[in-house]
Design goal:
Layout (H helix, E strand, L loop, with lengths): L31 H4 L14 H10 L12 E4 L6 E3 L3 H11 L6 H14 L15 H15 L5 H14 L6 E3 L3 H8 L4 E6 L5 H7 L8 E4 H4 L7 H10 L6 E5 L2 H11 L2 E4 L7 H25 L2
Length: 306
């Protein structure tokens, strides 16, 4: 797939834009939160041979950049950089207590997953989605409440929704994977880093709370871009903004459909993160080995012309 030209109408600055507030936007939580609770893979063993690491890293890559030097790395957000401190159901139960409801966390988890499956994929649009996708999120919350509190009045539903919306942008709700800060700290001087996520403007608050917003030159969220992963259009529009070719960008994510296949369809290299098998430490190893390989190939090329 080749990216088509489109107007540049998307807000992507890493800081909080003027007029943005916690009451604007909708969290577009990934299915991975419910299906696969986050786990942290063991650190790569130091004793492992360079050859083994190289071949294992190659297995995690969908494509390999050969034509142009890598200049930027895109990161997925939830499941890649950070995760919920508890399950979605646990957090919904906490919200319920704030409005006088006693709800079962496990029942809420099941209700959320059922509601999520009923939310259909949307076509890409030109420009940002209305009200930072808040209407989409309200629809999802209503589907959850229909299952766990069907007799709840409309004013109480409004109250639950507003508190839930703000809750998921608060400090302490999300946690970084242990290696993330150190990895970003090493990569930021070498590459242009960006986040690309099915999320809304509150993602910037979350990144700030977690102490990693300073590492990213851009934050691309689906509510502002007007396209959701796995639609490749979200990657096409991000590439246009950073003014790079697909083969100059590596995408790092944990979802086979939304990250691996979608990014590869546009021509990006892909690091397939699977936290039961690897971590972002393996990304560092891979980049180091590829750098050595490129250096050897460049040296060989210069020698052959003498």
């Amino acid at each position: 797939m080749r990216c088509k030209r489109a107007p540049s109408q998307w807000s992507t600055a890493k800081g909080v834009s003027g007029g943005t507030s916690l009451r604007r936007g909708v969290s577009y939580f990934t299915e991975r939160i419910v299906k696969n609770p986050p786990v942290t893979a063991p650190a790569t063993k130091i004793a492992i041979s360079v050859k083994t690491i190289f071949h294992r890293s190659i297995a995690f890559m969908a494509t390999k950049n050969k034509e142009k030097r890598l200049k930027a790395i895109f990161f997925d957000a939830v499941g890649t950089l950070f995760y919920l401190s508890k399950t979605v159901g646990d957090h919904y139960a906490l919200v319920g207590l704030e409005v006088g409801l006693t709800l079962d966390a496990q029942q809420l988890d099941r209700a959320f997953f059922t509601a999520w499956k009923r939310m259909r994929p949307r076509a890409a649009i030109i420009g940002p989605r209305e009200n930072d996708d808040k209407g989409w999120w309200r629809e999802l919350v209503d589907l959850v409440l229909d299952q766990v509190a069907p007799s709840l009045s409309e004013p109480d539903r409004d109250n639950f929704f507003e508190i839930a919306y703000e809750h998921f942008a608060e400090a302490g709700v999300w946690e970084l994977y242990p290696e993330v800060f150190g990895v970003l700290e090493k990569l930021e001087p070498r590459f242009q880093l960006a986040v690309i996520s099915n999320f809304d403007g509150r993602l910037r608050f979350i990144l700030e709370h977690l102490g990693i917003s300073k590492f990213f030159a851009h934050v691309f969220v689906s509510s502002e871009i007007g396209a959701d992963k796995p639609n490749p259009e979200i990657f096409c529009r991000a590439l246009k903004i950073v003014q790079l070719e697909p083969n100059q960008v590596l995408h790092v994510g944990d979802d086979a459909e939304r990250d691996w296949k979608a990014a590869a369809a546009v021509g990006l290299s892909v690091f397939k993160l699977d936290r039961e098998k690897n971590s972002l430490r393996d990304l560092l190893v891979f980049l180091e080995l590829m750098g050595r390989l490129d250096s050897k190939q460049s040296l060989k090329g210069r020698c052959s012309t003498d």
